[in-house]
Every structure is written in C-alpha cells, then in structure tokens.
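Discussion board: Methods & Data

I've been asked by a reviewer to show the raw model output for two of the constructs in my manuscript, not just the figures. I'm not sure how much to include, so I'm pasting the format here to get opinions. Each protein appears as its amino acid sequence followed by a line of discrete structure tokens. Is this the kind of thing reviewers expect to see in a supplement, or should I convert it first? Here is construct A:
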Amino acid sequence: MIVRIMGEGQVRLADSHLTELNKLDNTLLTEVQNGDVPAFRQTLQALLAKVRELGDPLPDDSLEPSELILPAEDATLEEVRDLLSDDGLIPG
C-alpha cells in the first residue's frame, strides 16, 4: 500500500501493519469527535511516526498513486475532521 503524508511524501507500507495503525486511527477519531485538541495532537503525531517507522520511503521523484492520504503533522483538528470517514483516516 502506498501512503502519502501531506507535505512530506510517500511511503510503501505492508498491509499487515494496518491493524496496528487502525488502533491509533480509532483513538484519533474519538479525540476529533470529542474536540480534545491536546490528545488529538499527540495521537496524530504518534500515527504519523508509526507510518514513518513501518513504511519504506519512496524517492521524491516517484509519482505512485496513493491508496491512503494522511494529514500533515501540523494539521488542525478541523482539517482532520474534514478528512475523516466513518472508519477514520484508515479504512478497516
């Protein structure tokens, strides 16, 4: 799976990591729904850090179609709310 972090680039991420990432995503969804900005900020940073840790960065000149787009680390709660689906940022 190709994942784009807005403003950073893309990483290739094994589908086997989605379960682990979905735990953080579910927490993030709850925090956004509750308007808990400090917790949201911490969880968003943790989610992006985990994607960076588990993923293999693609070259900057690579233009692979992204299957998943995640917000930038400095995204606001409102910006992330606009990106959310019923499943959060990560389907499943």
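Construct B, same format:
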Amino acid sequence: MKIAAFCRRHCLYLAWFVSVIAVAGSLYLSEVLKYEPCKLCWFQRIFMYPQLILLGIATYRNDKKIIPYVLPLSLIGGCISIYHYAEQKIPALSKVLPCTIGVPCNKDYLNYFGFITVPLLALIAFALIAILLWTGRKEDTVE
C-alpha cells in the first residue's frame, strides 16, 4: 500500500515525467532518426503534447484540479493508439481508413520482439498517465 500512497501523493509529478519521456521519444524519432510521423501519429501527438505543458504547470503549482481536464486527453489518445496498433497488427484494418497522404499508418518503424511498436509505446504512456491521474484524483487520506 506504500506504493499506492506514493503514487497518489506524487501523481502529478509522475504523470508529467511520463509525458516528458513520451514527447522526448516522439521528437527523437522524428527529428533525430528522421522517421516521418503518419496521420495517426500526429493525432496521438495532438493529445500528448499539451499534457507535457498542463501537467508541468500543475506539478509546479501542486494543483490536482487539473486532473479532470487532462485525464480525457490520455483516454482519447489511448484509444487512438489502440486503433493505430491494431491497424499495424491486423492488415485488414488498414483498408478500412487507409492513410492516403504521407507515410502509411500501418508502417512499422520500430518492431522489437515482434510486438513493440511506436503506437504501443504511446499507448503505454497514455495508460500510465491515465492510471496515475486516476489514482491521484482522490485526496490523501491519513493511514
């Protein structure tokens, strides 16, 4: 229970740290390794990048009132990541809404161990942020 109490107490800082890693990772892939983001990657970035700023300000101010506003960003971004990952792993899905401009959304730049791809990494980041914010939304109780 000490881990849960730690996560609840420091949820903003931990969620902000996850968003820093996610944004740095996406910028590294596109700006250093020159991997061009696909359409679905851009949508995931649209939901991740504001969290870096919002959670950073909330962490600095220790203001948990931001949680109801940031949590939907992680949930929606996570849903996009699930679809993107499914599109990469289930070939028939890429025909439902094909990416017609730029990089195809079913292209794997990274594919470690046959299942770790960029959308899965984004999904993990969105899920971690959502879980941390969900656990931290309640006030600390004296144990």
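Answer (T.O., handling editor elsewhere):
This is acceptable in a supplement if you add a one-line summary per construct. For B, something like: The CA atoms of residues 54 and 70 lie 7 Å apart.
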